[in-house]
């Protein structure tokens, strides 16, 4: 799945399959300018910053169990968001410091370090990395991912795929080759 925010005509947090299909709104009310997302892949929660409402919030992947983690003027200066164990990590764009916030109650906010020009943060954790298994976009004997001549995107499951073409090409009638 791909998770993303939109704050055009109607602000929302959404998800879809990697090929763009099955687009689903997770949160579409009481939200104004969501600017950063972080996923708890193990417990299936999505966290986001709303810089207009000055809040950090969380909901499960279906938009249920929504809670506000913290609110306040300091939120408008935050950018980037990551989750690791009991904490959220973010960048304060005002002073370029890395902040750690307790993700259960919004307390225990600590500045951990200062980084020049930081605007994004990521945490990589071994247990959240998916085990590699056979999937529909594996390279075929001719070196083509999923049998696609340009781009292979996983669809609704690891067994399904959609072929796409680079800019300037169109997908052939076979659904695999680009012309």
UniProtKB/TrEMBL annotation:
<dbReference type="GO" id="GO:0005886">
    <property type="term" value="C:plasma membrane"/>
</dbReference>
<dbReference type="InterPro" id="IPR011042">
    <property type="entry name" value="6-blade_b-propeller_TolB-like"/>
</dbReference>
<dbReference type="GO" id="GO:0042813">
    <property type="term" value="F:Wnt receptor activity"/>
</dbReference>
<protein>
    <submittedName>
        <fullName>LRP1B protein</fullName>
    </submittedName>
</protein>
<feature type="repeat" description="LDL-receptor class B">
    <location>
        <begin position="1"/>
        <end position="43"/>
    </location>
</feature>
<dbReference type="Pfam" id="PF00058">
    <property type="entry name" value="Ldl_recept_b"/>
</dbReference>
<dbReference type="Pfam" id="PF14670">
    <property type="entry name" value="FXa_inhibition"/>
</dbReference>
<dbReference type="InterPro" id="IPR000033">
    <property type="entry name" value="LDLR_classB_rpt"/>
</dbReference>
<dbReference type="InterPro" id="IPR050778">
    <property type="entry name" value="Cueball_EGF_LRP_Nidogen"/>
</dbReference>
<dbReference type="GO" id="GO:0060070">
    <property type="term" value="P:canonical Wnt signaling pathway"/>
</dbReference>
<dbReference type="GO" id="GO:0017147">
    <property type="term" value="F:Wnt-protein binding"/>
</dbReference>
